[in-house]
Amino acid sequence: MNEDTALITGAARRIGRKIAVTLADEGVNVVIHYRSSEEEAKELHDRLLELEVEAPLLQADLRKKSDLDRVIPEAAEKAGKIDYLVNNAAVFPSGDLEELEFKELVSNIRINSWAPFYLARSFLKRSDRGKIVNLLDTRVAGYDWDHAGYYFSKVLLARMTKMMALKFAPEFTVTGVAPGLITPPPGLDEEYLKERMDRVPLKKHGEEEEVARAVVYLLKSSFVTGQILYVDGGRNLLHELEG
Ligand SMILES: NC(=O)c1ccc[n+]([C@@H]2O[C@H](COP(=O)([O-])OP(=O)(O)OC[C@H]3O[C@@H](n4cnc5c(N)ncnc54)[C@H](OP(=O)(O)O)[C@@H]3O)[C@@H](O)[C@H]2O)c1
What we know:
The chain has 8 helices and 7 strands. It has about 240 residues and is of the alpha/beta class. The chain has a single domain (about 5-240), classed as Rossmann fold (3-Layer(aba) Sandwich). Strands 3-2-1-4-5-6-7 form a 7-stranded parallel β-sheet, with helices on both faces. The model has no long low-confidence stretch (mean pLDDT about 95). NADP nicotinamide-adenine-dinucleotide phosphate (NAP) binds near residues 36, 111 and 182.
């Protein structure tokens, strides 16, 4: 994979950061996209240089059309070219079905589905070939009653992933990684994971590394497209039973 470059959105922290370090370990240059985590992004940049890859920084708010428009051209300019796009950035607000407002639904869709789709399409328009991985969620196999706007946005991205895989073939592969219980939401601690581990068939939570390894597998594969790889300890198998 040497000489290849990945653009990772929301790369400065948490799962995005782990994907960046894991790809860099494989010799892949990384364009570090961030919105507000500038300090963490710079720290990651220094870490990736130690791994002897290029790691340009790119700031953009994926809610803004003007920012969305410049992400792919700017990433290609900074890195020379883009081979992989990892759509990792997302929001995860709480909110149930009874109280879901149109504005909230749109705000989830804007970041969690429209931005990944728009970036994928811009990537397609500017490159001859490439691979795209969208970060989904195990919940797409079932329901999430407590994060309704988020849930709809990830289900939409899952369908977009499959449609793009068909439409963008054979030059591009488009796949999804659907993590389960990995890290607590920002602001919450390990208790969050402990309380929920019992509901996972494998009776534990996953590590960021597991998600990163799945992304690397899909980026390396030349014969997998349109697939959603669940990294969730088997939780997707329960969704149909639990509703
Ligand atoms: N964590 C889990 O256990 C879990 C479980 C299931 C699915 N997932 C999925 O896996 C992916 C990574 O999860 P995570 O928990 O590591 O994500 P996260 O910390 O909630 O968010 C990742 C990054 O998204 C960026 N972001 C948010 N709004 C943005 C905007 N308007 N413009 C640009 N960037 C924006 C933020 O960048 P800045 O910090 O720079 O502002 C943030 O650091 C997400 O797609 C998530 O839905 C995670």
